[in-house]
Structure formats: C-alpha cells, structure tokens
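The following block was generated as part of the benchmark described in Methods. Ligand: fe (ii) ion.
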Amino acid sequence: MHDLLIRNVSLPDGRSAHDVLIGDGRIVAIQPSIEATAGRTLDGDGYLLSPPFVDAHFHMDSTLTYGMPRVNESGTLLEGIALWGELKPTLAQDAIVERALTYCDWAVAKGLLAIRSHVDVCDSRLLAVEALLHVRERVKPYVDLQLVAFPQDGLLRSPGAIANLRRALALGVDVVGGIPHFERTMADGAESVRILCEIAADEGLLVDMHCDETDDPLSRHIETLAFWTQRLGLHGRVNGSHLTSMHSMDNYYVSKLLPLMREAQVSAVANPLINITIQGRHDTYPKRRGMTRVPELLAAGITVAFGHDCVMDPWYALGSADMLEVASMGLHVAQMTSADGMRAAFDAITTNPARILHLTDYGLAPGCRADAVLLEARDPIEALRLRATRLAVIRAGKVIAEAAPAVATLRVDGRPERVNWMIAGANSPAARAS
Ligand code: FE2
C-alpha cells in the first residue's frame, strides 16, 4: 500500500490526465491510469500539479516588521536600510522567530516550500542569525530554508562585518552574501566581491550577493562578480541578486556582460515587486522601471529566478508569500507577455530557483521527494492569470495545507449561477504555446 495517489492531474510540461503515485515520501510513478491502492486518494479533477514554488531571494529577519518604528516615507532602498538600522538594536530573538514562523505558515499555504533568506550579520550579537538558524530547524519538516550571511551595512564599510560574517558561517549559515554597491567607493565594492568569493571558495560554499541594486548604470559589480567566479572556479555556484543597474546600462556594455555571466555560469534573481517600487525614485518622468533585463538574460542562456525579497518590512508594505503574484508582476514589468514568456515566468518561480538553490530531489519525476502543489488552474499560464488557489500542498507525500476552490456565485437572470474563470480550447495561451 502506498501513501498517496493523486488522480487525473495536468503537469507543467503539458501532459494531462496523469496519475501520481507516492510512497515513502517519494514519487513512485507518474503515468495515466495507475492501478494501485494508497492510504489516501486525491482527485486532481484535471487541475495542474506543479512542483512547489521556490523563492530564491527573501529577508526573513525583517519580514512582518512594517511600521516598526515608522514607515519608509521616501520609498527608497537607502531609507529602508536606515530604518532597519534604527530597528535592529530593539530586535528580540523570540519576536524574530515568531514572525518568521508566521511567514512560513503563509508560505506553506501558498505552496512555497523552499526559501533562500538573507540574514543580516552586521549586528555583532548575531541575534537574527541565531533566530533564523533556530527557525531553519523548526520548519525543516515542511520548508527548506537556506540562509545567506548578508553584511547589510557593507562588508568593508561596517566595522567588524567580516568577522561577524565568518562567525555566522561557522554557526551554520549556508551561503556567502554581499552588498558591493553599498560600500563607500566602487573600488571598495570590487574589493568586497573578491574577499567574499575567496571566503566561499575556501569554505566550499555558494555565493549570493545583492549586486548593483541601484539605477546607476556605472555600477558594474556584476562584472567583478563574474570575473572572480571564473578566476576561483566557482562556476554554477554564484548568484547575482537584483542587478537593477543593468536596466540603465549602455546596450553595448551589456552585450559584453551577458556572455561573461554565461561563461561564469552566474545566475540572476530579479525581485519585481521590490524593484518596480524602489528603483526610479530619483527620476521625474519618464521613470525607469529598474528591474534587470530578464528576457535578455534568459536569451543569453543564464538561469533567472523571480524572488519575493520583502513582505511587510522597511522596504515593502505588501506581499503574502504568493509567488504567483511575484511572477505576475515580473512578467508585466519585463513585458514577457508572449505565451513562451509567461511560461518562462512560471519556471522563474519553480525550476529555475530550485537550480539556483542547488535543491536536490526537486521536481515531478519518479525518485524525487513528493513535494507538490495542486493549483486550481489547468496550466502554468492560467495559474499566473488567476493567481490560482492552492487546492492542496504536499510535502514528502503528506497533504500539509488545503484550501477551498475560488467559488463565486452569480445572481443575474439568464446567466449561470457559478462563475467559470477558465477559457477552454484553442483560445487559451497555453494552447498557443504548445
Ligand atoms: Fe534583498
């Protein structure tokens, strides 16, 4: 007897009317009409079963602190960092833990089961580091939480940051972070990239830096990051987050930069909800969007993910752990409105971030851990359009969250009582993409 049998689902690759059989927490088989018995059978009703959402860029130490001690009036990155600096000395470990656990509840309910979170290491008490290491263990049964040692106030600019970062890594933080554009000079920024990449190479760790989160087209630390990635043989192990300066860069320079990133196998994470609100604040009109060049990065063969970055914190007042909202904003900002573009946006919150996090066992295939989300939509594009209800969230073969379908009842003469949000047939974007 197996644990779970999910009947009649569609899959992100376009297969339909398939069953998924799960045993010992892993996917045993995916095929039409499986003949087997299981402890629980779930009727997929033709809906989309996707691997869970993955957020490649988040800040769990600051989440849900909106308004503490005041809100960000200018809406800029710099006021957000200053505000976080005011808040930091007042932080209590149990409150960080409680907020992070609440956020993980939201994440699970939204089918988001893997998160890479940066954690600020510039407070010598390492309060947030200890809190999130505790949370990482607490949520392990249901969320893969990966932590990045993030010197928020600058590795060289903030006294003691290098030592604190090393202490955080020694305590068990997973990934080396950085913020070269926040150093005092371009030269210091470049130097911080070298130091951090060398630490990662020495320790055998992955790298994920906040990089060029600015509208300054001459902020080119991504070039330095790709250079040190190649020099130190860190290919495929380094990610550049934000990369917003690329939005404003000269096209000729970008034509040199993208092949360098590709050769170094440096991946990229854009954070559309945050970049569309934080960037361009010094512009009058036209106002730049500020998000990095996602379609061009993808066309160059670079792995790109969309991250949530912030939820209800000094930088962003909204958000609900909904990666479909993140991808929807991303595809709008990047004008990825072709059928293939929308399909790529779905990959940017599932398979691409899974690759960036180096997740093992991820995916819908026999042998993978049985993590999945059943969406009230028949294909990835419909899921994006409807921000589809997460009907069931499955972790290692167990249903760990469920939600009722999105039902609206009409009281209009001559029209059906139940609203149908689905457009069937050749008219649908998914049909055109296939
Ligand atoms: Fe960030």
